[in-house]
Write a structure and sequence with these properties.
With 123 residues, this protein is an all-alpha fold. The protein has four helices and no strands. Transcription repression requires formation of a complex with a corepressor protein of the Groucho/TLE family.
Length: 123
Protein backbone atom coordinates (compact mmCIF):
# COMPACT_ATOMS: atom_id res chain seq x y z
CA UNK A 1 0.00 0.00 0.00
CA UNK A 2 1.39 3.40 -0.92
CA UNK A 3 1.43 6.41 1.33
CA UNK A 4 -1.36 8.16 -0.53
CA UNK A 5 -3.60 5.10 -0.33
CA UNK A 6 -2.82 4.70 3.36
CA UNK A 7 -3.63 8.36 3.96
CA UNK A 8 -6.99 7.99 2.15
CA UNK A 9 -7.87 4.91 4.20
CA UNK A 10 -7.07 6.71 7.47
CA UNK A 11 -9.00 9.77 6.35
CA UNK A 12 -11.98 7.62 5.43
CA UNK A 13 -11.88 5.82 8.79
CA UNK A 14 -11.81 9.13 10.64
CA UNK A 15 -14.60 10.67 8.55
CA UNK A 16 -16.98 7.71 8.56
CA UNK A 17 -18.20 8.09 12.19
CA UNK A 18 -18.81 11.81 11.63
CA UNK A 19 -20.79 11.18 8.45
CA UNK A 20 -22.80 8.46 10.22
CA UNK A 21 -23.51 10.78 13.15
CA UNK A 22 -24.78 13.50 10.77
CA UNK A 23 -26.97 10.95 9.00
CA UNK A 24 -28.53 9.81 12.30
CA UNK A 25 -29.12 13.43 13.30
CA UNK A 26 -30.94 14.08 10.01
CA UNK A 27 -33.11 11.00 10.54
CA UNK A 28 -33.93 11.99 14.12
CA UNK A 29 -34.72 15.55 13.10
CA UNK A 30 -37.05 14.38 10.36
CA UNK A 31 -38.83 11.99 12.70
CA UNK A 32 -39.32 14.80 15.22
CA UNK A 33 -40.77 16.97 12.44
CA UNK A 34 -43.15 14.17 11.50
CA UNK A 35 -44.16 13.83 15.14
CA UNK A 36 -44.92 17.55 15.35
CA UNK A 37 -46.99 17.36 12.13
CA UNK A 38 -49.12 14.51 13.38
CA UNK A 39 -52.31 15.67 14.98
CA UNK A 40 -52.90 15.26 18.71
CA UNK A 41 -55.48 12.54 17.97
CA UNK A 42 -52.64 10.34 16.69
CA UNK A 43 -50.21 11.19 19.46
CA UNK A 44 -52.81 10.60 22.20
CA UNK A 45 -53.13 6.96 21.18
CA UNK A 46 -49.84 6.24 22.93
CA UNK A 47 -50.17 8.74 25.79
CA UNK A 48 -48.76 6.49 28.53
CA UNK A 49 -45.65 5.34 26.72
CA UNK A 50 -42.82 7.05 24.91
CA UNK A 51 -43.23 6.89 21.17
CA UNK A 52 -40.55 5.00 19.35
CA UNK A 53 -39.34 6.11 15.95
CA UNK A 54 -41.08 3.14 14.36
CA UNK A 55 -44.37 4.20 16.04
CA UNK A 56 -44.06 7.70 14.62
CA UNK A 57 -43.32 6.35 11.15
CA UNK A 58 -46.27 3.93 11.31
CA UNK A 59 -48.61 6.70 12.49
CA UNK A 60 -47.38 8.94 9.69
CA UNK A 61 -48.10 6.24 7.12
CA UNK A 62 -51.58 5.77 8.59
CA UNK A 63 -52.21 9.54 8.59
CA UNK A 64 -51.02 9.93 5.00
CA UNK A 65 -53.17 6.98 3.89
CA UNK A 66 -56.23 8.59 5.46
CA UNK A 67 -55.46 11.91 3.75
CA UNK A 68 -55.08 10.21 0.38
CA UNK A 69 -58.38 8.34 0.81
CA UNK A 70 -60.18 11.55 1.77
CA UNK A 71 -58.68 13.32 -1.23
CA UNK A 72 -59.82 10.52 -3.56
CA UNK A 73 -63.34 10.61 -2.09
CA UNK A 74 -63.51 14.37 -2.55
CA UNK A 75 -62.38 14.04 -6.16
CA UNK A 76 -65.04 11.39 -6.83
CA UNK A 77 -67.70 13.57 -5.25
CA UNK A 78 -66.58 16.61 -7.25
CA UNK A 79 -66.64 14.59 -10.51
CA UNK A 80 -70.13 13.36 -9.69
CA UNK A 81 -71.27 16.87 -8.77
CA UNK A 82 -69.79 18.33 -11.96
CA UNK A 83 -71.54 15.66 -14.07
CA UNK A 84 -74.85 16.40 -12.38
CA UNK A 85 -74.36 20.12 -12.81
CA UNK A 86 -73.43 19.90 -16.48
CA UNK A 87 -76.33 17.50 -17.09
CA UNK A 88 -78.77 19.92 -15.43
CA UNK A 89 -77.40 22.86 -17.40
CA UNK A 90 -77.70 20.87 -20.62
CA UNK A 91 -81.32 19.97 -19.85
CA UNK A 92 -82.08 23.63 -19.13
CA UNK A 93 -80.53 24.70 -22.43
CA UNK A 94 -82.53 22.04 -24.29
CA UNK A 95 -85.73 23.14 -22.58
CA UNK A 96 -85.12 26.80 -23.46
CA UNK A 97 -84.73 26.09 -27.17
CA UNK A 98 -87.03 23.15 -27.78
CA UNK A 99 -90.25 23.69 -29.80
CA UNK A 100 -92.31 21.97 -27.11
CA UNK A 101 -90.97 24.40 -24.58
CA UNK A 102 -92.11 27.43 -26.58
CA UNK A 103 -95.54 25.84 -27.12
CA UNK A 104 -95.93 25.18 -23.41
CA UNK A 105 -94.62 28.65 -22.62
CA UNK A 106 -97.08 30.34 -25.00
CA UNK A 107 -100.02 28.32 -23.68
CA UNK A 108 -99.09 29.25 -20.12
CA UNK A 109 -98.81 32.93 -20.98
CA UNK A 110 -102.18 32.77 -22.80
CA UNK A 111 -103.81 31.31 -19.69
CA UNK A 112 -102.40 34.08 -17.55
CA UNK A 113 -103.35 36.90 -19.90
CA UNK A 114 -106.00 39.34 -18.65
CA UNK A 115 -108.08 38.87 -21.83
CA UNK A 116 -109.44 35.37 -22.07
CA UNK A 117 -112.00 33.78 -24.39
CA UNK A 118 -114.78 33.53 -21.77
CA UNK A 119 -115.95 36.58 -19.85
CA UNK A 120 -115.35 36.58 -16.15
CA UNK A 121 -118.44 36.35 -14.00
CA UNK A 122 -118.31 36.70 -10.23
CA UNK A 123 -121.43 34.51 -9.63
Amino acid sequence: MTNSQEHLTRSHKLRKPLVEKLRRERINSSIEQLKSLLGPEFLNQQADSKLEKADILEMTVCFMTQLLQQNQQQRRLMKHFNKLQSSSEEKLREADFSPLSSTVHSSITKDKSPVSSAPWRPW
